[in-house]
Amino acid sequence: MDQSAICPRFEKAMSIMSQRWTGLVIYQLLTGPKRFCSLESSMGISGRVLSDRLKELENQDIVKREVYPETPVRIEYSLTEKGRALEPMMKEIEKWSQTWLPVEPTP
Amino acid sequence: MDQSAICPRFEKAMSIMSQRWTGLVIYQLLTGPKRFCSLESSMGISGRVLSDRLKELENQDIVKREVYPETPVRIEYSLTEKGRALEPMMKEIEKWSQTWLPVEPTP
DNA sequence: TATAATTACTTACATAAAGTAACTAACTGA
DNA sequence: TCAGTTAGTTACTTTATGTAAGTAATTATA
Lengths: 107, 107
What we know:
Two copies of one chain form a homodimer.
Chain A: H1 8-17, H2 22-29, E1 34-35, H3 36-43, H4 47-59, E2 63-68, E3 74-79, H5 81-84, H6 87-100
Chain A binds a DNA duplex through helix 3 and helix 4.
């Protein structure tokens, strides 16, 4: 019954993007490098999962981690070229949401 | 610390798209109406979760469910206008995956 | 000197989501 | 009456996520 086999690369992309929080993390980083605690508080993700996601995205070469040995230490997360290449997709989600989603979802 | 508040409509869109399987279900339906068992077998999702997702997408008015009282009964799922409006986003993921993901991820 | 503060995490535990496999309902054809 | 078909549902297990406290490294403060 496996009629329409899905392109494995598309499937992979989807499996990355359809993990909880991943899209939002990338979206936040589109506006520039961010620190751990800044991401944590601006999107309401738990530190435990944020830590996981950043590691995964680093492994995928979508996010880059840079350490600045100041006091206290500063660590910045930013997008790689591969990560920035996701901007057009983000823009399309943005457009769709503005066209099709109500302004007040659940008051 | 909630510096950069995220647009609630974008956040909502992301929360829909970042649920496991949701993107793939929509992607499959872009090629035309599909039946439950066809979706189930073509993407390897469990019936339990597929059932959940289709209900959610119906509630969001992204998917339409139609019953044909044949024998045995035929039920078709298809995209609404709101659902089809996600095609540009899907195309962008497709493009990204073809540009940035390797052909053989894990042999 | 001890205590507190800061950042970037990790750990242990609890809850929610997803996978598995068997089961049901409604119908028909043998 | 029994088997076959589709579209699910149910009970149970495994995995993912949330919560809250803890750690390491460093400096500032009482």
